[in-house]
Amino acid sequence: MAGKPILWYFNGRGRMESIRWLLATAGVEFEERFFTTREQYEKILCDGVLLFQQVPMVEIDGMKLVQTKAILNYIAEKYNLHGKTLKEKAFIDMYSEGAYDLMVLIMAYPFLSPAEKEKQLDLISKRATDRYFPVFEKVLKDHGQNFLVGNQLSMADVQLLEAILMVEEKKADILSGFPVLQDFKVRISNIPTIKKFLQPGSPRKPVPDENYVKTAKLVLQF
Ligand SMILES: N[C@@H](CCC(=O)N[C@@H](CS)C(=O)NCC(=O)O)C(=O)O
């Protein structure tokens, strides 16, 4: 039997967090290796393990995978979280990318100056309420099913829940105008593996703090 996947990243959310969410949803246990120094990172770079000299990197099924989307798609396919038909897969990818684009705005936030942070908060709220959440609200309302695509749980649902919770950490009442998404949030949060991931003590990472920002800057030298 293959060993547990090993996740190489920082001890924080960033681009790895959606991967943690997806593995946890699938009920897959994983190990993590955290970069804390530039030397560690240079060693793995010199070993040629990071194909494009970037993380996240995930060791899984004898491969060393990089590129977040490739990793997510592999996990989604493997654990039946990527729909059944080509068309379902296309919609799952489309919705996942929308949720991910919203999350990218939040991922950038801790690295900004105080003045930039204020603007970014406005942008996050605006994008959530004017662009992304209305789409997901309408999709769920129009087909009246529990999940975004194909009436079964997929990566799109998982990433949407992740995005909703991330935006709520910045603006608690962000779902006030989205009753269908409020129900969606409760429903998906109660899926047993997800519920477990949302409990304290799980591998879910907290809101990035100064230490996370400092470590990422030190390791990646920016
Ligand atoms: N397209 C890549 C981008 C990965 C990426 O930008 N990773 C950052 C850390 S979150 C990194 O390694 N930056 C160092 C670099 O680009 O040299 C992905 O989605 O995985």
Automatic annotation (TrEMBL):
Domain (GST N-terminal): residue spans on this chain: 3-83
CDD domains: GST_C_Alpha (cd03208)
Pfam families named in the record: GST_C_3, GST_N
Gene Ontology molecular functions: glutathione transferase activity
GO biological process: glutathione metabolic process
UniProt-listed InterPro entries: Glutathione-S-Trfase_C-like, Glutathione-S-Trfase_C_sf, Glutathione_S-Trfase, Glutathione_S-Trfase_N, GST_alpha, GST_C, GST_superfamily, Thioredoxin-like_sf
Record family assignment: Belongs to the GST superfamily. Alpha family.
PANTHER family hit by this protein: GLUTATHIONE S-TRANSFERASE, GLUTATHIONE TRANSFERASE
Protein name from the UniProt record: glutathione transferase
Organism: Microcaecilia unicolor
High-level lineage: Eukaryota, Metazoa, Chordata, Craniata, Vertebrata
